[in-house]
Amino acid sequence: MSVDVAAIVSVLEAIGAAWQAGETSQTILSDHAQRVRLGCVPEPGQPSAQERERISQIRLGRHMRALAAQTAPGAVDWRNHDGGNYVTPIKDQGNCGSCVAFGVSAAVDANMRITRGLPLSHPEAGILQDISEAQLYFRNGRTCADGWDVPPAMSYCQGIGVVPESSYPYTGKDQTAYLPNDYAQVITRISQVRTLTDHADMKSWLEQHGPLVTYFTVYEDFQAYRGGIYTHEHGDYQGLHCVCVIGYDDSRGAWLCKNQWGTGWGESGYFWIQYGQCGIDATMWAVDGFDVLYSAKPSAATTLTGFAVHGSASRLYYLGEEQHVHELGWNTGWYQSDVTTRATGAPRVGRAPMTGFAVDGNDSRVYYLTDDGSVHELWWSGDNYWDNGWHATNLTAVTGADRARPGSGMCSFGIGGTASRVYYISADGHIHELSWSGNWYHGDVSALTGAPPAVTGSGLTGFAINGSSPCVYYIGEEGHVHELSWSGQTWRHLDVSALTGAPFATAASGIASVAYNGDSPRVYYISADGHVRELSWSNGWYAGDVTGATGAGPAAVGTAVTAFGHAGSNIWIYYLAEGGNVNELGWQGNWFHNDLTAITQSPPAAPVSALQAFGRDGTNPRVYYQTWDGHLHELFWESHWGQADLTGMPTG
Hints:
One of its GO terms (biological process) is proteolysis. The chain is α+β, with helices and mostly antiparallel strands.
């Protein structure tokens, strides 16, 4: 242990200091590790540490005289400004000299929220994301050992701009220097940078605009800071450190700062430092407005796909306003990631459905269409969120397959858990298969079977019987539900509606399916009377009226339908009723109905909302939809129904 904590405590007690020292997450580090984190390196021509301390002391006298003349002490804390917290949570820069990137990013993050009027408690807080410290620091080939200075970092934010942290996550170690794919669509760029050298100007800016950036001299005793108003009292010089100033308090005679050494140091990551100490107020830098301020808001009428990975971790994919694929993921908390920017070469999404599944239940596969009708795959191969694990493949280019028609339905699943199968509809209404078996292959399933074309607007749904034999369902031009199934040697076609005499599906009907007990198909669609209909196989095809069996109200015109099975023989179906209420039809030996919107008192869905549902841990339902304001909501079962606004929720 490089810092003598006992000696520091003894000195503070002897002089009656206004701050407390003790063991922290910093004091347990080696002297080298402590110094590595002090990565502020002034450029030639900038004041040295000693000069900054001298400047602060010279100005302190004028500052104190001004304080004495005040009628009342001033104070600002952007963690509680008019009841709102605009300061994002404490981070940890790790064993890397990237403090300048963190200090600057913290100021930009807070000023974004202040500019938009979106404190962390606001219903739309989640549309603003922290900017990427990794891009800001590593973009120009910098390493953790190099350090940086504040003016060039601020200039970078003003010139090129910075993508969200979710597009370029920070790892705490040296990272590759690159600009994320299609980065210009998700950039935040500040308008001007202000350099402040007068205490009154610094306070005025904090009061009227927002947090500032500064750096100061760190001595050994600062590593042991636990709380109070810091003044340097003991120990040797270690280096210069950059932080974000989020407030001040004249009654305490101190600046309030946000550090980036985790919550195991200081006052849960924050600290107070006395005016004039350690060069803290020799110069500060301000974010003066934004030329571009990126908001990660879902597009109106976004498409959705989702599933569970590793059994209990939710993954939801949606289309952002910039036509990027975004991931909302739950591990131990929600996070947001712009998958398009993280997958090199991934093009923007067209206005069409997405589909996806988890290979072996673990690794995400997401499929979507571009405006030219090409089918693209986004695939994950990595150990954790911070890996560069997203990749992109143009399956149409790889296979030479026919292009999809505009708005084509899509579905996908795995054979044997690993071999991808993707289905879509071409301009002539044919159903096409893209299959993976060591390489990608293409087949026109409609041509192979002589099946009639799909109606314009038909969805696609499917699964693998016993995990090995594909079954795909669509709606034909005559309103019939058709099956395309693989027998092990050849594709076959069946008009299921004709066999059962089931009512016609509406042209705009959603369609969903599950494999009951793994081997018995169940298909769900909407008939003209708004009823949810079932086509089921049990040694023969049968038609059923699930709405009639439960007494549920009719479905809204054009509603999406989604379904999944769990515990082998239980089935859950979700659809929208008139007015946007999310309704559940469940089978557990008998059919039952729930109005989940009424049960949870959640906002109704927009009329054109997509729906997605799956079982967490294979059992607990998760249902996702979009409201009128564009927000994505989750309805979840954990011994009772609950709901969450995922768009409004700040994500890590």
